[in-house]
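Posting for a labmate who doesn't have an account.
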Amino acid sequence: MNKARVGLTLGAGVLALAAPIVMHFEGLMTKPYLDPIGIPTVCYGDTHAVMRTYTPAECKSMLLASMAEHGAQIAPCLSDALPDHQKAAALSFAYNVGSGAFCGSTFVRKLNAHDPSACAELSRWVMAGGKQLPGLVRRRAAERALCEGRA
């Protein structure tokens, strides 16, 4: 796979498809809070800059920067032959689970192999802290629909 080309294709189009899913399911919280499994979080699920209250504009800027960073981290793990809707589903998923978990997942292996069952793998990632979370079930369903080209 051509890593330079993948990096370019995980650009504005992919970000535009993935950002609404991430924004919807992460939700906007301008004040720091603990996520469902106790991780300090702020804005749209950011776990790195949890130190103060942010404006909505700051949160959106942080989200876009973080998504671009996640895109750069997962680009080497993705085939450059994938369509943007699948890359966008992958980006939303990786933003939630982290690039390490994403790159080591059966989902990415099947996706790169163009396995027709690849998108269904997303439905398996609905646990956090040892519990199935309804929000993760809904998020994975949205990511799967995008991955399958139904969204």
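Reply:
Got it, the structure tokens are right above this. Residues 3-147 form a domain with the Lysozyme fold (CATH 1.10.530.40).
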